[in-house]
């Protein structure tokens, strides 16, 4: 089971939303981890000296955290600068193994490139947890998106997939949440079968079904891997649901997250076919836009 040891909670221009800080504190307590709270002053007010603003934010954080020093080792710091740059510098300096950031409102997100959320997602060496404003105290549904190519068996049992399974399984158990495993697949040669096959009514259908079965077997193998990671008793308690939608990953993950009313989507930040950064950027943006959903993104 994955246990975080050194968590970073980073916020911009203030003390941040109560729900996100509460979850960071709970996670640190449950993992017996250190928690660093980094407030980044990105836009110093014109009517107040910077040092006074820093002191005011520090006081507010200390008041809010005063009752929690017994639950975990706490550290508070306020810096001036760009949120993503300061967070990445903090991660490099102190070796954090998780960063939690209340996500920016959708109207402030830049498309595809740029924005603090995207810089953290693409450059953080540790997992990034973007928490949405309407976050529940306890999650009901966690969606784990898994990527692999059944034609390449080595793409199933990978360090990234094992890490994703471990994280999602641990979080589902701690929140008593339902865990959903999803893999989006397609049958790219279907059109060729329809055009060139001697039996156009049967060959394309047979080909598509054979592709579906191959992808299904890969997802079942990952489910068995999850059983190995969690143990039989914990896995049987979770009884993960398997989902195998066909189509584009960005559309299908967003659609399924909405159908399940997912509280959290866990996924890797790199795609298989040379789309590092782009696939995760599109998918995260879709999920953050509608429906609101937190995202835990993990680099390979």
UniProtKB/TrEMBL annotation:
The keyword Cytoplasm applies. Keywords: Cytoplasm. It comes from the Bacteria. It is found in: Cytoplasm. GO terms for cellular component: cytoplasm. Residues 4-130, 139-299 form the UspA domain. InterPro entries: Universal_stress_UspA, UspA. Gene3D superfamilies: 3.40.50.12370. Required for resistance to DNA-damaging agents. Belongs to the universal stress protein A family. This is Nucleotide-binding universal stress UspA family protein. It comes from Marichromatium gracile (Chromatium gracile).
């Amino acid at each position: 089971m994955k246990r975080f040891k050194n968590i970073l909670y980073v916020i911009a221009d203030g003390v941040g939303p109560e729900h996100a800080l509460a979850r960071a504190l709970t996670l640190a307590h449950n993992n017996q981890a250190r928690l660093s709270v980094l407030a980044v002053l990105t836009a110093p007010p014109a009517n107040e000296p910077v040092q006074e603003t820093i002191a005011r934010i520090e006081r507010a954080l200390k008041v809010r955290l005063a009752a929690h020093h017994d639950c975990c080792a706490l550290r508070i710091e306020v810096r001036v600068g760009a949120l993503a740059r300061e967070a990445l510098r903090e991660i490099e300096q102190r070796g954090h193994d998780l960063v939690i950031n209340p996500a920016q409102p959708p109207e402030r997100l830049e498309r595809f490139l740029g924005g603090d959320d995207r810089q953290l997602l693409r450059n953080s060496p540790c997992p990034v947890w973007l928490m949405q404003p309407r976050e529940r105290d306890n999650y009901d549904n966690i969606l784990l998106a898994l990527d692999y190519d059944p034609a390449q068996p080595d793409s199933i049992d990978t360090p990234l997939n094992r890490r994703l399974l471990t994280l999602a399984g641990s979080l589902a158990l701690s929140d008593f949440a339902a865990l959903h495993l999803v893999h989006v697949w397609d049958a790219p040669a279907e059109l060729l079968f329809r055009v060139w096959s001697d039996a156009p009514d049967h060959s394309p259908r047979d080909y598509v079904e054979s592709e579906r079965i191959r992808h299904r077997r890969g997802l079942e193998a990952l489910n068995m891997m999850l059983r190995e990671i969690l143990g039989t008793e914990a896995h049987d308690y979770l009884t993960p649901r398997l989902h195998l939608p066909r189509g584009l990953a960005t559309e299908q993950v967003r659609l399924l997250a909405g159908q399940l009313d997912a509280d959290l989507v866990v996924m890797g930040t790199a795609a298989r076919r040379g789309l590092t950064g782009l696939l995760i950027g599109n998918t995260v943006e879709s999920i953050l836009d509608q429906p609101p959903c937190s995202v835990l993104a993990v680099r390979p």
